[in-house]
Design goal:
74% helix, transmembrane helix, Phage_phiKZ_Orf197, membrane, mainly alpha, globular, 2 domains
Amino acid sequence: MLTTALALLLAHLLADYPLQNGWIIANKKKPAAMAAHIGVVFLLTLIALKGQVLPALTIAVLHLGIDLIKTHLAPETLWAYLADQLAHVATIAAVLWFWPDLALLWPNAGNWMQYMLAIGAGLILCVHAGGPAVGLLMQDFDMMPQQGLPEAGRMIGLLERALIFLMVMAGQPGGIGFLIAAKSVLRFDTASKDQKAGEYVIIGTLASFGWALLVSFATLSLVTFYGIAPTPP
């Protein structure tokens, strides 16, 4: 069951983040964009379930229902965002409970496969899912004018969360302190000249680091608890 659950979780995260492009996000209220997104969800879910059409279709339909509620009814807040993702995870859990035979889809899956699925899901959740979460948290404070390179702040967030994830999974969390120090030095000039900008940077940095640490250590705990970390030869 663990392998199937991880495969479904990875399929969901791939569809919701790396494979959901800017056009789909910008036009989510339009039927064509929503259909494209749900098509990707169904295809990846079908692969994760090794061609089991009915459960894959069930997850896709439920995904559509959750996304319609989020897009048309839910407010654009951090809590609504988190509730949306928890609803998708609950859908996967419910399908696995309703079709217990899905646990037998990957009989030959070893530790390496489970480990890679867990790492893939954790990395996407840490790096990509953290961006919207931090952005929604910061939206009430977002009064800064556009400065620097376009999309630079987003790219910095992606890179810093990816580095934190890699450090935690490599057993080197102490390196995160150097990452914080480096960012503090690079942002010192901005923070010293403008108190509001400095506070904005501090809140955003702590939120991004906090999200990355929470997801990274949760992934490490999952791998450790189930003993799926591959043993070196």
